[in-house]
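thread from #wetlab-drylab

HS: before we spend reagent money on co-crystallization trials with adenosine-5'-triphosphate, can we at least see a predicted complex? here's what I'd submit
DV: go for it
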Amino acid sequence: KRIKVALLFGGKSGEHEVSLVSAASVFKHIDKERFDVALIAVDKDGAWFLQPQPLYDEKEGGFVVERKEENRVYAVPAGGLRTMAKPLDIELVFPVLHGTFGEDGTVQGLLELCDLPYAGAGVLGSSLCMDKAAVKRIWIQAGLPVVPFEELREVSWKRSKGAAASVRRAVDRFSFPLFVKPSRAGSSVGVSRCETEEGLYAAIEDAFSFDDKLLIEPAVQAKEIECSVIGNQELTTFAPGEIVPSHDFYDYDAKYIDPDGANLLIPSSLNEEQQKMVRQISARAYRVAEAEGFARVDCFYEEATGKVLLNEINTIPGFTKISMFPKLCENGGVAYGELLTKLLDLAVDRHKIRG
Ligand code: ATP
Ligand code: MG
Ligand code: MG
Ligand code: MG
């Protein structure tokens, strides 16, 4: 008997379009002999719609969201999902949603209430990993090496602007160039590199349009490394990959728009010893951050010091067939379709344990 899986995609976040492409890729490669797939799109307002058949944007290759009121999906605590007309027979959910209201524990909480197993991290892991400032504090507490940061809240910026205590500390502690980023975002949305104090203020204003909590960090001079990790209790890490951006940094354009925006090295240029260090640190970072199922750990390898510095962790990383997360698994012998099966199996296992 095939397992009935719902793919949830789209979403309210700035990464809506990225999700449409990730989900189309997942749908194409999921093992249809094992899984009977239902498609549920989340529109930009956050409303859920059952998609009777897949609709594609021919240019982008991603899904198009069809919003028909009669196909609107409702979540029922202890009762799964339904439309107005009928209950949906779904046993398992794969949230292929990036960013806010998808990757951050909110959807995970809703699925817990509906008693539906789902792929990826649970409520705490999702929300903790979504918040760069919070997860870095957990990592520091666990003795893991992180890119140093100062945290800036919008209230204190509005009150004091450049005189805000954490802005002053950032400028004193770190030297330019600096990075400014929203604490809870992804795909480099709202991330800026700044060379001057004036530029820093402009970057802060911009980043506050995405979140009311920001990080200010020194620009790390290092190899940019990403590591795929899968598992619940027992973890598998894969040989890390490396990003060599042709832009100033790996910005939204370099990720999705400019085909020559970045070179992905799989595996990375790190030697055996360095790779081992990245994999060990990534596995510990995953565990203490309460990640489950799968995640991509982003870090830097600083050649000058020989240190690995954790940057962030993504509990629902880009998931097209050519995205870094699945590519690293593939390089390690787990093909895309097989990986999907594994992640869904892990979701069922966890649900059995937790009940
Ligand atoms: P994603 O989830 O898509 O990987 P994100 O929006 O969560 O991205 P980051 O990964 O923290 O944000 O930053 C985006 C990019 O900005 C990084 O891939 C890197 O190129 C650059 N970057 C971020 N922080 C720093 C830093 N402190 N030093 C140097 N480069 C940085
Ligand atoms: Mg991220
Ligand atoms: Mg992300
Ligand atoms: Mg990143």
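DV: Residues 224 and 300 are 5 Å apart (CA to CA).
HS: ok that's useful, forwarding to the group
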